Amino acid sequence: MASTQESPRRREVLAVLRAAAEPLGVTETAGRIGVHPNTVRFHLDALVAEGLVERRVEEPSGPGRPRTVYAPRPGMDRRGTRSYRLLAQILLGQLASRGPGAREEAAEAGRAWGRFLVGPLPPYRKPTAGQSADRLVALLDDLGFAPEPEGGDGVKAPARIRLRHCPFLELAEEHGELVCPVHLGLMQGALAELGAPLTATGLEPFARPEFCLAHLAESADPAGTAEKAG
């Protein structure tokens, strides 16, 4: 079935409903356009299915049957493309204009989101370094980084994690000086929230053409925030 964007007649039906002062029935809508009611009924059903129009039943004020009417659904049209990458470019460009402190601002934003995104542990339970690394790898996997830990055994943490996919690849290629600190900060914030005896000490962007490399280190001070990105 053609979408409203592809169907001039359907757009016309929608325009008539939007211009009306009150909901319209099939016959009224057809009369305003000058087409057969069955044609209008087909397009109204499609508009309801697309979520652009609401179907209502009006009870009669006197004798007679209830009347089915149609009205445009309130709110902005949610179809069409999104441009979140453009929004990210705008915000990154603005952040980059702040000068030398921009990297730390980006890292702190990542730490805040890392603390927010990591799942909580049971009360009073402190994870081992290996358990902390497992939780971090699970979080990175959920976020689309395709992480591959190098070593580790559930008790001892891996020294490095390969990140084989970057969910912000094009932005990282354009604004790596800001995007990569966000990634490092995210890992640091997650480990801090876990109270982990482990920290992310650095992130090597594109250490190999096929992956970035996150460095981990066990710490006597749980979840320290040593930072080295790029």
TrEMBL record:
<dbReference type="InterPro" id="IPR036388">
    <property type="entry name" value="WH-like_DNA-bd_sf"/>
</dbReference>
<feature type="region of interest" description="Disordered">
    <location>
        <begin position="57"/>
        <end position="76"/>
    </location>
</feature>
<protein>
    <submittedName>
        <fullName>Helix-turn-helix transcriptional regulator</fullName>
    </submittedName>
</protein>
<dbReference type="InterPro" id="IPR036390">
    <property type="entry name" value="WH_DNA-bd_sf"/>
</dbReference>
<dbReference type="InterPro" id="IPR011991">
    <property type="entry name" value="ArsR-like_HTH"/>
</dbReference>
<dbReference type="Pfam" id="PF12840">
    <property type="entry name" value="HTH_20"/>
</dbReference>
